[in-house]
Design brief:
alpha/beta, five-stranded mixed beta sheet, 38% helix, elongated, binds zinc ion, metal ion binding, Metallophosphoesterase 1
Length: 326
C-alpha cells in the first residue's frame, strides 16, 4: 500500500505570492497523484492559515479552493487531520469550529482507520491539552477506549473478560498521525537538508504550543506503543526516537510559503513493516531562476527577429568589420 504524507499551510487573504504558492501546491499534488497513484493521502493539518477566525463566507471560499487544489479521483482516499490553524490553539478551539472542520473533512477528533490490516490512529492533537476541557476530555476518553480495543485485539488479550464486548481491530500496533509533534526539547538533534535552520534549531520548544505536553506524549506512547508517529506543525524535518524505540518523523511543509524546498513522504506499509522515502518538490528559487532566464532568452529571440534591431545589429557588425580591417 502506498501513501503520501504531507503538511501544508496557506494564507486566506490572497496576495500575489499566494497565487504562486497555491499554483505550486496544486501542480505538485496533481503530479504526485499522477506519478505515484497512492491509495491514501494524509494531510497533517494547518490546511487553512486563518480557519481559526474566518467567517462563514471566508471559510466556504477556503474550502472551495482547497477542493480545487487537492482534487483527486475516487481511487485515492484523502484524509485531512486537524491543525491549530484550522480551529485555533486550545484556548481558541470551540465546538462550532471543530464541527465545521469535521463536517467538511468527515474527520472526528480521534479515529482508527484500518487499511489492509494496518491501523492508522488519527488524533486531534490540539485537544490533548490535558486540562479536562469538555472537548479535551471527550478526545482523551475516546483514545483510552481505542487503546483498550487495540490491546484486546492482540491475541494475548483477546480472551480476557473485559475484552468480550470490545470492538476489535487488526492486531498490529497503530501508526499515529497528528499535527503537533510529541514532546521534545528542541530541534537540536535534527539533521538533514530540510531540518530547521541552525539559528532556530536550538530554541527550546514550548509545551502545548510547539509540541505536545510531556504528559500527553507519554500517554500516547504508553497507551498505543505505536510503531511510527508522523506529525507536522514545525515546517521542518526531524527524526526522533522516543524512549529509544518509538520513531517519530516530523514532516516538513508542502508549501513554498513555508520553505524553499518543500517535500512529502511516500510510504509503503504492511502489517509488520513499513518503508518511507522523502520526495522533494522543485525549489522556489530554481523555478524563479528558470522563469527569469526563459524570459530573457525569449526577449532576445524576439529582438533578433525585429527589423529595427536587425538594422542596428548590421551597423554594429559593419563597425566591427571596419575595425578589424584597420
Ligand atoms: Zn500548526
Amino acid at each position: 500500500m502506498t501513501l503520501v504524507v504531507l503538511v501544508r499551510r496557506r494564507k486566506m487573504k490572497i496576495a500575489i505570492n499566494d497565487f504562486s504558492w497555491e499554483w505550486q501546491m496544486e501542480r505538485s499534488f496533481q503530479t504526485a497523484l499522477f506519478l505515484l497513484r497512492p491509495e491514501m493521502v494524509f494531510i497533517l493539518g494547518d490546511v487553512f492559515d486563518e480557519g481559526k477566525w474566518s467567517s462563514t463566507k471566508d471559510w466556504e471560499d477556503d474550502v472551495r479552493r482547497f477542493k480545487q487544489i487537492f482534487y483527486h479521483s475516487s481511487n485515492t482516499e484523502l484524509v485531512v487531520l486537524i491543525g491549530n490553524h484550522d480551529i485555533g490553539f486550545h484556548h481558541e478551539m470551540t465546538s462550532y469550529k471543530l464541527e465545521r472542520f469535521e463536517k467538511i473533512f468527515n474527520m472526528t477528533s480521534a479515529k482508527i482507520l484500518t487499511k489492509r490490516g494496518v491501523n492508522f490512529l488519527l488524533v486531534n492533537s490540539v485537544a490533548l491539552h490535558g486540562d479536562h476541557c469538555p472537548i479535551c476530555q471527550s478526545v482523551e476518553d475516546k483514545l483510552y477506549s481505542f487503546a483498550q480495543q487495540l490491546n484486546c485485539s492482540t491475541q494475548s488479550d483477546a480472551t480476557r473478560n473485559h475484552c468480550r464486548d470490545m470492538q476489535t481491530h487488526a492486531s498490529t500496533p497503530p501508526i499515529i498521525l497528528q499535527h503537533y509533534p510529541l514532546y521534545r526539547t528542541s530541534d537540536a538533534e535534527c539533521t538533514g537538508e530540510d531540518a530547521a535552520p541552525l539559528n532556530e534549531r536550538y530554541q527550546l520548544f514550548q509545551e502545548r504550543y510547539d509540541v505536545l505536553s510531556q504528559d500527553a506524549s507519554k500517554k500516547l506512547l504508553w497507551w498505543f506503543q505505536p510503531r511510527l508517529i508522523l506529525s507536522g506543525h514545525t515546517h521542518s524535518s526531524c527524526e526522533v526516537f522516543h524512549e529509544n524505540r518509538f520513531l517519530e518523523i516530523s514532516v516538513p511543509s508542502f508549501s513554498w510559503r513555508n520553505r524553499n524546498n518543500p517535500s512529502f513522504i511516500l510510504g509503503t506499509f504492511s502489517t509488520s513493516d513499513f518503508a518511507l522515502s522523502k520526495c522533494f518538490l522543485p525549489e522556489e528559487s530554481s523555478i524563479i531562476a528558470v522563469y527569469c532566464s526563459s524570459a530573457v532568452v525569449t526577449v532576445l529571440i524576439i529582438l533578433v527577429h525585429l527589423r529595427p534591431f536587425q538594422g542596428a545589429l548590421h551597423i554594429v557588425n559593419s563597425l566591427l568589420g571596419k575595425k578589424k580591417s584597420l
